[in-house]
Amino acid sequence: MSTFIENQNWRYATKKFDASKKISKEDLKTLKEAIRLSSSSYGLQPYKVIIVENPELRAKIQPAAWGQSQIVEASHLIIFANETQVEEKTIDSYIANISETRNIPVESLTGYGDFMKSKLINLPEESKQIWTSKQTYLALGNLLNAAAELKIDVTPMEGFVPEQVNEILGLDKLGLNTSLIATLGYRHQEDATQHYKKVRKSEKELFITL
Question: What PANTHER family does UniProt report for this protein, alphabetically (predicted)?
Answer without folding.
Answer: NAD(P)H NITROREDUCTASE YDGI-RELATED, NITROREDUCTASE
